[in-house]
Amino acid sequence: MKLFKKATPGKETAPASFDAKRDGGLLAFLLAACFFWLLFSLPGLLHGWSWWTFRLPLEVVVIVAAFAILPRSASRPLRWPLALLIFSAALILFLDQALRVYFGRPLNLVFDIDLLLPGLELLWGAAGPALSAILLLALAATFLIVLFACWRALSILEPVRAPRTAMGVLALVLVAAHLPGAQRHQLPITAELTHSLTGQIQRMAAVIRERPQFEAALEKDRYADSIPEEALGALSDTNVMLVFVESYGRQAVENPNYSETTAAALQDLQDATETKDIQGRSGWAKAPTIGGQSWLSHASFLSGLRVDNQIKYQLLSESERRTLARAFSDRGHESVLVMPAITRAWPEADFMGFDRHIFARDMGYAGKPYNWVTMPDQYTLSHFDRTVRKSEKPFFAMLALISSHAPWTPVAPVLDDWTSIGDGSIFSQWADQGESPASLWQDPVRVREHYGWSIDYVLRTLASYIRNVPIEEEPFLMVVLGDHEAGAIASGSDAASEVPVHILSNRQELLAPFDQLGFTPGMQPKESTAILQMHDFRDLFIENYQGEMTQTVSAK
Hints:
Blueprint: H1 26-41, E1 56-57, H2 58-69, H3 72-75, H4 79-103, H5 109-112, H6 116-127, H7 129-157, H8 163-177, H9 181-184, E2 189-190, H10 192-219, E3 239-245, H11 250-254, H12 259-275, E4 279-286, H13 294-303, H14 310-317, H15 324-330, E5 334-339, E6 356-359, H16 377-389, E7 395-401, H17 428-431, H18 437-440, H19 444-468, E8 476-482, H20 488-491, E9 498-505, H21 512-516, E10 520-521, E11 531-533, H22 537-544
Parallel strand pairs: 1-2, 3-7, 3-8, 4-11, 5-6, 5-7
Antiparallel strand pairs: 4-9, 4-10, 8-9
Helix pairs in contact: 1-2, 1-7, 2-8, 4-7, 4-10, 6-7, 10-14, 12-19, 16-19
């Protein structure tokens, strides 16, 4: 068998850039094949080093065999299109594996493309303009180099002429692909790219199928016209605070890496409530997302619908769905949205139904940002206390606490004297301390350590807020919960999407619905506590706080 055909006078048998003798013939062929082998194997290293990662990708065999079958007249014009296709497929495989490792979920191109801009903003805030520009230029150059390498490898493979051998190899590939799973996994071969692309198609198809179902659910809202006359009546004189804690998931409470630190912070929160005769209940909720996209949890909580992807979020934002904020407004509360992470126009906020929006530019923070984190949570709560809590009208306020957002460095101290916070300039002295994100994220162990510290900071800030601010002077109900589990680098690859929920109030009767749902006393949620869905809360509030608390309806 001859892999490389000898040149015949008058006939061009190889591209001008390739000569079997000059380029080493078989060696060049092996190097080209190895390039594709590495291209499809390296994404597996995101899961950790293992020789098993370098099993032979079946896709490499298919590429080499297909070029051995195609006639020269067909293979030559296909070089660039096929190089672009191979590069794109490898990029999808890499992104799919990266999302699984860092966010605990697979890639879905239908709506993940919308995360590109937030991702760039996160990079810009964490690394700064200069380093971000350098990294983006380096990334673009890497893409071009890999694309050219794909084209060059194909040009080297093109002179291979062994159609019968190639067809035999393809037949073996098909046989191997149809072996039972247990036997196939024992072979030194893999088909990660095929599995990734197949899964991608299935996820995209699922999104398309779910769209009409979600649209139908939007149209069937039982509270579309109005809420019951007695709804939320038991909260008519009560200040209601909904506090989302960034990346506060079940792993922060139960994972041995964090459990001791978090337990101490929760005990501090418990001690703070007891000093003010405030009672608490704790449980769990299942978030619609994991590792990011906090807005999906916010929308689910407020709308009473599971909003687990960007398409549903967009459909919801274009609808007239009655949110919990709008329901409170209809009953006489001032509804306020406090989002210190929002630094640009956010028209989608209008559908949430709040009377007033307070974004980063509205908060008067004069200190330095903490990388991506625009301001420490203690300043957010201080500003909220001055501008919202002291208003005469009962309020329903939703706050996002963001100090526990990646990159988790630096972590601010909790100031004992809240009167010293002022315009926040006092926090500038710690904004440049600690490791830079670029340095920290080279070591996953230190990343997890900083994540634990950030959760500790948020919980102790809430404890300090309760100790130092007289929120107990008026009836109040506070819901503190995570927006989603942290990314897989902190929570692990097998973490579920459950988050802790803490309910605090100075009126015991306001805790009764959560008692009946199985929440336990105190700030430490128990493993056996019932798990709510994030989208249960809208109807839970509307149905459980009617009139004078004469009935209790469980969340469905």
